[in-house]
Amino acid sequence: MTKPRLRFAPSPTGHLHIGGARTALYNWLIAQKTGGTFVLRVEDTDRERSTQEYVDSIMQAMTWLGLSWQEGPFFQTQRFDLYREHMQKLLAEKKAYRCYCTAEELEAKRAQATQEHRKPKYEGTCRNLTEADWAKETRPFCIRFKAPQEGSTLVKDEIKGNIEFQNKEMDDLIIWRTDDSPTYNFTVVVDDVTMNITHVIRGDDHLNNTPRQILLYEAFDYPLPIFAHVPMILGADKARLSKRHGATSVIAYRDMGYLPEALLNYLARLGWSYGDKEVMRLKEMVNYFETSAVGKSPSIFNPEKLLWLNGIYIRESKPEDLAEELIRLFKLREIEVENNATLIAAIKASQEKSKTLAEMADLVEFAFLDHVPWSEAGKKMLENEKVKDYFGRLIPKLEALNTFDRDSLHQVVETCIAELGIKLKELAQPIRAALTGTTISIGIYEAMLLLGKEKSLERLKNCLKD
Ligand code: GLU
Question: Which of 50, 122, 311, 347 meets the CB 3.0–4.6 Å disulfide criterion with 171?
Answer without folding.
Answer: 122
